[in-house]
Amino acid sequence: MPEIEAIPQETKERIEQIGAADLVIGISSAGGGEQTGATLEVVRAAIKRPSSPRTVLVHAGDPKLEDTLDDGFASDGSLRFLRCPALGAEHLPGIPNGLSDASRALFTISKSLGARACALLASDMGVFEENRLLHLIRPVLELNFDLVVPWYARHQLEGLLNTSIICPLTRSLYGKRIRWPAASDFGFSARLIERYLIPEAPAFAASRRGQLIWMVTTAVSEGFEVCQARVKAGAQPPKDPPDLSSALAQIAGAVFTDMERTAAIWQRVRGSQPVRTFGTEPDVPAGAFAGGVQSMVESFQRGFQNLQEVWSLILPPATLLELKKLTRLPSDHFHLSDELWARIVFDFALGHRLRVINRDHLLRAITPLYLAWVASYASEVQANSTASAVAATDHRVEQLCVAYETQKPYLLSRWRWPDRFSS
Fold first, then answer.
1. Model confidence at 237, in pLDDT bands (50, 70, 90)?
2. Pairwise CA distance, residues 329 & 315, whole Å
3. pLDDT confidence of 93, banded at 50, 70, 90?
4. How many whole angstroms separate alpha carbon 328 and alpha carbon 301?
């Protein structure tokens, strides 16, 4: 197995000692051994069944912990521990190549142990709980799903990069209604892991480093069985990072590059279908919107003044005219329609494909436009303070997703005949 060569020697020796497993769970999070120790009881509770699967917990903790953990927590041998440095604190989201390296190491270990299922837990272990793990592994072990994507409990104004771009874009492209494709916790089948370990062409492999969205797009575009699992209240969703432009460049860039790879697939997809979803609606965590609508509108207005030359290389004249009209609106009347926003995202995807300017510059240039959409969205959802705010927010997100789907013919036309709107 060529990929095993990338695993440290001590890890390989430990794999040989363990021999085989039914389930491999990888924890990629800060905290090392202390964090691992805090999750042991949860893992044991999650796998405790009449016939417990042989489970290996892969962590990056202190190597001295392993003998103690094995002796103290798994006298029946059903739960074993394997230290793998690649899943350590230095491999967290935000560190280049971190999660990509960690996930590949985990998949290699899972394959080496002959596991039927594998779970990657890469979000905050501080809210780790039994149901969260159960929801990720049971559909794989018991129902033969290939990928389980969490549906995070979320505040309506958090995780807006996922809400505004990743969720509706991937849904419109591949026809599967997955609410959190920009997740960081997953459950995988052995069959899907075999696919993930196939080397990609360098141009596409580079775009995936440090991002996990490709795991979802690969599964849905290639016909694997995908489901969602609602995460119990208390699990906070991913938040937009402070360096918004860099995050947009990394995340949108990965999705746009995948669009090129899968163009022959998504151009045949029309509409969307729900995927099976497990679990009940979780409580929405308390939270507040950190930004201000006025400041976001002003950022958009400055962007229009400073980036017109760049935007004119990406966006058609009709869109630029609509944006110019928006610059004249006061913040309390500001509204960027979902249809216009969807076309803007599609235009940036095309500009990325055609390399009309440096790709990093192009991706960062969408930031003021993203803030314009967020300002419009925030004004709407913050006005809804009723008890049905959760349902109202879900309805609002559904409206956005439908707008992407209805505008997909625009994307298809521009993708196939990019010069049509150049005049």
1. very low
2. 21
3. very low
4. 9
Contact by Cβ (8 Å): 108, 197:
yes
Torsion angle (degrees, nearest 10) of CA 210, 373, 186, 47: 130
Q: Which two tokens stand for residue 391?
A: 């349902």
Phi, psi for 163 (deg, rounded to 5): -65, -40
Backbone dihedral region of 113: left (phi > 0), alpha (psi from -120 to 50 degrees) or beta?
Answer: alpha
Out of 191-195, 202-206, 400-404, which region has the weakest mean confidence (pLDDT)?
Answer: 202-206
Residue 112: in which H helix or E strand, if any? helix 98-112
- Residue tagged 């489970």 (tokens): 55
Distance CA 182, CA 193 (A): 18
Q: Which domains does the chain have, with CATH numbers?
A: 2-278 (3.90.550.10), 293-414 (no CATH)
Structure tokens at 415: 């993708």
Asked if residues 364 and 248 have their Cβ atoms less than 8 Å apart, the reply is: yes
pLDDT class for 305, splitting at 50, 70, 90? very high
Whole-number CA gyration radius for the chain? 22
Residue of 150, 410, 374, 385 whose CA lies nearest to 275? 150
Q: Are 92 and 210 in contact (CB under 8 A)?
A: no
Helix (H, G, I), strand (E, B) or coil at 92: coil
